[in-house]
Design brief:
The radius of gyration is 21 Å and the shape is globular. It folds into 2 domains: 222 residues, no CATH class; 118 residues. By secondary structure, it is α+β, with helices and mostly antiparallel strands. Helix 3 crosses helix 7. It is built from 12 helices and 12 strands.
């Protein structure tokens, strides 16, 4: 059985259970049982992505780690991926190695960032990546295993293990798997990957270092402004409120339809939220989020959650029914880590 850190092969005598226990003993798991990565299974994974075993996929500069296709394939097998998921996993690995994502911070911070992955394009439909009911919940193999494969690469190849390199104080369940797709079929707006420079027919993965999703509820409003006022009030004191890199706003069916019916597009949503989520310096100081005593002018001096409205990413996804949506604060600051979008090459 191949390891994920070296080219050695291990032969385990006994049953499948024995092989699974061996993986636990080697520290290759995330706490759940893994699929033993036998050479035939790894070969199928590589074939699906048309990659050679030693072919470099990414280089993580902060860790001085070269990630080969074989290492990605081994972890994808262990995560329970189907071979056809492999190109998506590869694109996600490329994204976390991008200097803009800046691996060291999200991979080691006490802030415990998860890796939110948003899948767009034909691949999302073909692999049945969930974009609807129970969006972040269990039940979809593609969502759960693709995200798990990426985290296993981070653990087993890059060394991001809890208690050593991964110093998350609390962490959150998204650190196991954190994958969704955009609801492209029903979206009234320009798709996320198109906004980020790709063609609609291209398949992509957008990766963001992220906190857990924060759900909000509004069943009273039948206007875009009403729904977004509730959202903005909740967002305003979320995250670290001191200049995060990006936020992802996930609008589920009812809220999406209400906002679109008022003629609001992504531009109007972003601008409204950027304006209405700003905090006064006085509030930030009184609540011990900003250092120093309250000074003259602090009551009217405002600080936005993000530097620009363009740092608010709008993604329609989630169930058609229910007056719930959510937002996901990004980890760190704009200079620490930014969302990265990579094409899924098949």
């Amino acid at each position: 059985m191949p390891t994920t850190l070296t080219s050695k092969r291990h032969v385990v005598e006994g049953s499948l259970d024995d092989a699974i226990e061996f993986c636990f003993q080697q520290g290759w798991t995330d706490g759940l049982p893994v699929v033993p990565p036998t050479p035939p299974k790894v070969a199928k994974m590589l074939d699906a992505a048309r990659l050679e075993p030693k072919q470099p996929v990414a280089f993580v500069e902060h860790r001085a780690v070269s990630i080969t296709a074989e290492k990605v394939a081994i972890n994808a097998v262990m995560a329970g991926c189907k071979p056809e998921y492999m190109p998506v996993v590869v694109a996600a690995v490329e994204a976390i190695a991008d200097p803009s994502w800046s691996y060291h911070g999200p991979g080691t911070s006490t802030g415990g960032a998860g890796v939110l992955m948003i899948v767009n394009g034909p691949v999302a439909r073909e692999l049945e990546v969930n974009c609807g009911d129970n969006l972040f919940g269990p039940g979809w193999r593609a969502n759960l295993t693709i995200g798990r494969a990426l985290r296993l690469v981070m653990r087993n190849v890059c060394g991001s293990r809890p208690g050593t390199l991964d110093r998350g104080t609390l962490g959150h369940p998204g650190k196991l798997s954190y994958v969704i797709a955009e609801n492209e079929a029903e979206s009234p707006w320009t798709l996320l990957h198109v906004e980020r420079g790709f063609q609609r027919e291209q398949s992509t993965v957008t990766v963001m270092a992220a906190e857990a999703p924060h759900q909000f509820y509004n069943q009273l409003s039948n206007t875009a402004q009403g729904v977004l006022t509730t959202l903005a009030d909740d967002m305003r004191i979320s995250g670290n409120v001191m200049g995060q890199p990006q936020y992802v706003i996930i609008l589920a069916g009812e809220h999406m339809r209400t906002i679109a019916a008022d003629g609001w597009g992504k531009k109007e949503i972003r601008e409204f939220l950027w304006k209405h989520t700003q905090n006064s310096h006085a509030h930030l100081k009184r609540t011990q989020r900003m250092s120093g005593a309250v000074q003259d002018g602090d009551e009217t001096r405002l600080r936005p959650l993000v530097e620009s409205p363009d740092d608010i990413l709008i993604v329609p996804a989630g169930g058609r029914a229910g007056a719930f949506s959510c937002y996901v604060p990004g980890w760190g600051s704009r200079r620490s880590s930014q969302a990265v979008t990579k094409e899924v090459k098949r």
